């Protein structure tokens, strides 16, 4: 790591935390929004500075960390800049900035104890915010669900960290929870299974993998704006698997891979079916996120170069357009007072830009040719087909169901005639404001630009992909120097 990188990383973590704390002294809603946007923009600039100084494979930093940092800062800026103003009071803005700070700390640190601290810190701002607002029944339900998730998703990780650090403490190691020292010391095979089970339980809750998913749709529908979306889309759970579970517990991971792959594919298909059954746009997006989490878990569990590269790419490919899609959904809610598809219809006449961006972001999230998700799903499919051809069927079925879900949502929301009794309300709807259009369009462009030029993003993490897949894995991606054979046709 270059000498200038450490202070830059410290500034990167501290800036949004200081900005979130400073908002408590800002009483004007408009000024609070300007402060939050400025802080989020400066944080993104710092992240780009880290990218400039970054050296792939350098000590203490990884390509996985770099991509996660860029994703967290980009999504936070989009949420605070383009979210509906009535949903972005200073409490919500502060919670978003504090969540961003905790996420960045999680991705920057190389100490497992600090990772645990930031893991818990990521969920605390939203929990505090919900607690203050939990007077109405929907908010009270969101609080109960979220608190259960907070405990269930954190206690197993605490236990796993204690088990991993215990040998180092007993031997008097200088940094018993340092990742490099843990890797050098290794974990005895008999203890790996129990530790992996604890880590997987924590990760399953954080990634909203079926059957530990129920908190996410509730939080997206009833919780504070952007908090649940940011926590899931920065993919801290996926990062924990790649940086801790897979390299530290290789024997246990190999033994558990068939079970985890089955769980991931089942969760992806189950989430897709639940998304199809929803009438609320917010819950629909929530279950699409659940479905994508299952696909990513299945890709990591397959343990070959293409499937791991596909899972890591899909973590970005789904997060970017689905965040943009939720921004459009919240814009619809702010204008109509509802996200119930049975009460909407015909919005394309009043909001053509809204309809166009909703459509483009939706198809980008579902693997339309030319999008980043298309490349990610193609790598996943190749990786799974190469090992277990029949197992790829749930993946194809999941993609098809998600496509039907999106087209149905678009038709009911934007096409046809307005719902009975809603025509007068829908006739007053305004199209997206400039700041909303810019943010949604920027996320849409990134989703398709990443599909046209996936090479730089793949190369940032090829070191992790090669190390996790092992020498026996297919060599296309890691040895290509570009996109690998699997991407040659894109």
UniProtKB/TrEMBL annotation:
Which interval of the chain is the signal sequence? none
In which domain of life is the source organism classified?
Bacteria
Task: Enumerate the subcellular locations listed in this protein's record, separating them with semicolons.
Answer: Endomembrane system; Membrane
Write out the ranges of the annotated region (Disordered).
471-490
What's in the keyword line of the UniProt record?
Membrane, Transmembrane, Transmembrane helix
Which portions of this protein are annotated as coiled-coil regions? none
* InterPro entries to which the protein is assigned, alphabetical: NADH_UbQ_OxRdtase, ND/Mrp_TM
> TM segments?
35-54, 66-83, 103-125, 146-169, 189-212, 224-246, 258-277, 284-301, 307-333, 354-375, 387-407, 438-458
Question: Where does the NADH:quinone oxidoreductase/Mrp antiporter transmembrane domain start and stop, copy by copy?
Answer: 111-399
This protein's membrane topology, according to the annotation, is: Multi-pass membrane protein
Protein's recorded name: Proton-conducting transporter membrane subunit
Upper taxonomic classification of the species? Answer: Bacteria, Pseudomonadati, Myxococcota, Myxococcia, Myxococcales
């Amino acid at each position: 790591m270059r000498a200038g990188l450490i202070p830059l990383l410290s500034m990167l973590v501290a800036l949004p935390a200081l900005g979130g704390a400073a908002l408590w002294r800002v009483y004007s809603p408009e000024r609070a929004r300007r402060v939050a946007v400025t802080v989020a923009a400066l944080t993104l600039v710092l992240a780009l500075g880290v990218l400039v100084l970054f050296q792939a494979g350098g000590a203490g930093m990884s390509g996985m960390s770099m991509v996660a940092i860029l994703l967290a800062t980009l999504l936070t800026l989009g949420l605070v800049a383009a979210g509906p103003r009535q949903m972005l009071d200073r409490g919500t803005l502060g919670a978003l900035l504090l969540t961003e700070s905790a996420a960045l700390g999680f991705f920057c640190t190389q100490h497992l104890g600090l990772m645990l601290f930031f893991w818990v810190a990521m969920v605390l701002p939203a929990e505090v915010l919900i607690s203050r607002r939990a007077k109405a029944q929907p908010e009270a339900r969101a609080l109960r669900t979220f608190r259960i998730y907070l405990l269930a998703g954190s206690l197993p990780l605490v236990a796993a960290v204690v088990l991993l650090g215990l040998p180092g403490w007993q031997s008097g190691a200088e940094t018993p929870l340092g990742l490099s020292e843990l890797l050098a010391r290794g974990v005895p095979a008999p203890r790996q299974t129990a530790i992996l089970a604890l880590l997987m339980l924590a990760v399953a809750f954080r990634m909203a993998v079926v059957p530990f998913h129920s908190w996410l749709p509730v939080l997206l529908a009833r919780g504070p704006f952007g908090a649940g979306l940011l926590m899931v889309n920065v993919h801290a759970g996926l990062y924990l698997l790649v940086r801790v579970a897979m390299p530290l517990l290789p024997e246990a991971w190999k033994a558990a891979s068939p079970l985890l792959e089955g769980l991931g594919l089942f969760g992806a298909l189950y989430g897709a079916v639940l998304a199809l059954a929803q009438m609320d746009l917010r819950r629909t997006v929530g279950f699409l996120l659940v479905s994508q989490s299952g696909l990513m878990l299945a890709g990591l569990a397959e343990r070959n170069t293409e499937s791991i590269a596909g899972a890591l790419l899909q973590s970005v490919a789904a997060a970017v357009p689905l965040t943009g899609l939720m921004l459009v959904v919240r814009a619809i809610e702010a204008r109509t007072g509802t996200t119930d598809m049975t009460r909407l219809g015909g919005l394309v006449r009043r909001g053509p830009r809204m309809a166009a961006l909703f459509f483009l972001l939706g198809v980008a999230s579902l693997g339309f040719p030319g999008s980043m998700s298309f490349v990610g799903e193609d790598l996943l499919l190749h990786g799974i087909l190469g090992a277990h051809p029949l197992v790829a069927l749930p993946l194809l079925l999941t993609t098809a169901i998600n496509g039907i879900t999106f087209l149905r949502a678009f038709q009911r929301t934007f096409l046809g005639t307005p719902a009975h009794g809603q025509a007068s309300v829908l006739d007053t709807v305004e199209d997206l404001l400039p700041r909303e259009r810019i943010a949604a369009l920027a996320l849409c462009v990134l989703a398709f630009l990443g599909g046209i030029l996936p090479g730089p993003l793949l190369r940032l993490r090829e070191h992790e992909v090669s190390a996790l897949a092992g020498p026996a894995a297919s060599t296309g991606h890691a040895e290509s120097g570009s996109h690998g054979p699997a991407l040659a046709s894109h």
